């Protein structure tokens, strides 16, 4: 507040008398106290004091005599503390209660009547006072008086009222402080909702009620500005729900407070466009960013929203002066309208208040953090429900894999997160088509000539379900050109395999594809009996070719020999990691 405004406020206060009934060290405590008194007393006003204290007072009274008479009467009724005293308000600054109030809109205080003749100053606890003895909270106004008091509102007061009406669900236009047809209609709707006479102009009492309901939610969130000079971020946070936990680069972590379930991450790291893009990809691998939700990204910023049954999170980050700065809000998925409103209010406040400082979170703060490939800065990395192998069968990125691997998946990805859909399934095989056309390094070249029995064959696959960055090559022998029950479309292998290798290509010594490793659960003999560990099965080339050609994929024949070194390269370029997400 400017010097001129301060002098005007001081002059107005000094011309009247107040009963100071309480002082509190924090605004939150003072607001709660003021709300409590306002439930049973008229003319309750909260003022900021010099320093960090806040006063709750009654008034204004025109004369000292009126104020003293009111003090004695209220003390006699036990409605104010015995140590309440008179003051001219010389130390009072800006009002904080009622929300949006100004001195010009406060009605003059009146001296209350003693509840019974001969009452003394013996205090009766407020909770024992009969309800009918409590004074009205605020006198109502006629429409003309309401318009007069409304004209005295500042632009900030008008914007605050529009915000409160939007919070109440009756206003959906811009917050501009202009009371046009949209705001008047919202006021009428609010009055109808609350059972008041519909005039389209709120009285002082009605404004206080609407603003008080909004302020109560703000108080429950505890929104307060935080300037983290280590991370170089300033932002309003719901400190009623979170508290600082630790620095774990690139995050400053705020954990849930009092079981709220809410978390906040401030993002801060040195970097460029590549760093921003990398963070965009990494964030989507974390459990705190559910898979379902909109994502936007450009060269200088990104946003991620994710929702599942447990949590809803929103992340924003941008490139600023050689650093990536941003934040994430994690919130228990709202189940009620009230909680949806609280979540949206916190989200809007964080979006509008986010700004950057010069500091960048040093990597040294990460020393001593838990080291685990399933963790990033102490946060759980999302892992697929199942992961296994597949291989490219055309130059647009179509993939052949095991049908068991991709059954009942909410989302399927191949390699570095490219999303794919199941085009067809048949007899243990599945054909995947990427959502976006890909350009594989290598495509399967098939050989219809089966190798001799007991000759060496190999399977390329992600045996460890993606925990290694590349596929491994597993060697074995061609044991039989049939299944154990004589199946003509199966090959029996003398090879010990792991579940993650199912769906991978079976290669001959020249690097040509002669089959696809089958999931053991898809083979009847393996389901019915406990077979030796070194028994595996593959679907042969003829079965694969029939399936692929039946769904529009033309197979290519192999025409060249290769070395063992080339075999490893072919397997690596041909094989893809297939992940099933739920």
From TrEMBL:
Residues 154-207 form the Peptidoglycan binding-like domain. Transmembrane segments: none annotated. It holds the Pfam family PG_binding_1. SUPFAM superfamilies: PGBD-like, Trypsin-like serine proteases. InterPro entries: Peptidase_S1_PA (IPR009003), Peptidoglycan-bd-like (IPR002477), PGBD-like_sf (IPR036365), PGBDSf (IPR036366). Gene3D superfamilies: 2.40.10.120, PGBD-like superfamily/PGBD. It comes from the Bacteria. This is Peptidoglycan-binding protein. It comes from Celeribacter ethanolicus.
């Amino acid at each position: 507040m400017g010097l001129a405004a301060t002098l005007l406020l001081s002059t107005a206060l000094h011309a009247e008398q107040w009963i100071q009934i309480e002082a509190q060290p924090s605004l939150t405590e003072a607001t709660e106290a003021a709300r409590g008194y306002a439930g049973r007393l008229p003319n309750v006003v909260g003022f900021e004091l010099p320093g960090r204290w806040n006063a709750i007072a009654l008034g204004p009274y025109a004369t000292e005599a009126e104020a003293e008479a009111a003090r004695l009467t209220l003390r006699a009724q036990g409605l104010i503390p015995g140590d309440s005293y008179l003051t001219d308000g010389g130390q009072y600054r800006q009002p904080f209660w009622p929300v949006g109030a100004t001195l010009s809109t406060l009605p003059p205080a009146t001296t209350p009547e003693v509840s019974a003749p001969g009452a003394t100053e013996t205090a009766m606890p407020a909770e024992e006072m009969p309800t009918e003895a409590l004074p009205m909270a605020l006198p109502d106004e006629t429409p003309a008086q309401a318009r007069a008091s409304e004209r005295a509102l500042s632009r900030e007061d008008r914007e605050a009222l529009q915000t409160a009406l939007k919070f109440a669900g009756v206003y959906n236009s811009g917050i501009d402080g202009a009371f046009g047809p949209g705001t008047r209609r919202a006021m009428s709707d609010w009055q109808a909702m609350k059972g008041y006479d519909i005039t389209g102009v709120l009285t002082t009492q009605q404004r206080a009620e609407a603003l008080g309901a909004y302020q109560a939610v703000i108080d429950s969130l505890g929104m307060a500005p935080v300037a983290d000079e280590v991370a170089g971020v300033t932002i309003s946070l719901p400190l009623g729900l979170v508290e600082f936990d630790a620095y774990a680069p690139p995050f400053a972590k705020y954990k849930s407070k009092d079981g709220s379930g809410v978390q906040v991450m401030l993002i801060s790291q040195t970097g460029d466009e590549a760093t921003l893009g990398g963070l965009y990809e990494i964030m989507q691998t974390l459990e705190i960013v559910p898979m379902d939700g909109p994502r936007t990204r450009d060269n200088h910023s990104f946003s991620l929203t994710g929702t599942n049954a447990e949590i809803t999170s929103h992340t924003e980050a941008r490139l600023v002066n050689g650093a990536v700065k941003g934040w994430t809000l994690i919130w228990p998925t709202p189940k009620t309208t009230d909680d949806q409103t609280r979540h949206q209010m916190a989200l809007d406040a964080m979006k509008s208040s986010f700004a950057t400082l010069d500091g960048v979170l040093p990597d040294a703060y990460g020393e001593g953090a838990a080291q685990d490939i399933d963790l990033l800065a102490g946060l759980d990395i999302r892992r697929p429900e199942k992961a296994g192998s597949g291989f490219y069968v055309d130059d647009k990125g179509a993939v052949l894999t095991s049908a068991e691997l991709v059954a009942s998946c909410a989302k399927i990805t191949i390699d570095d997160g490219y999303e794919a859909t199941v085009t067809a399934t048949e007899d243990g095989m599945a054909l995947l088509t990427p959502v976006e056309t890909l350009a594989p390094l290598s495509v399967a070249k098939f050989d219809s000539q089966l190798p001799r029995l007991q000759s060496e064959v190999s399977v390329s696959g992600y045996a460890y379900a993606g925990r290694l960055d590349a596929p491994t090559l597993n060697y074995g022998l061609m044991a039989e050109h049939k299944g154990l029950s004589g199946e003509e479309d199966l090959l029996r292998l003398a090879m010990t395999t792991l579940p993650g290798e199912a769906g991978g290509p079976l290669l001959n010594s020249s690097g040509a594809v002669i089959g696809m490793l089958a999931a053991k659960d898809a083979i009847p003999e393996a389901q019915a009996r406990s077979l030796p560990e070194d028994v595996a099965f593959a679907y042969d080339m003829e079965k694969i070719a029939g399936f692929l050609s039946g769904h529009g994929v033309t197979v290519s024949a192999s025409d060249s020999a290769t070395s063992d070194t080339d075999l490893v390269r072919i397997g690596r370029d041909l094989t893809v990691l297939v992940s099933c997400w739920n």
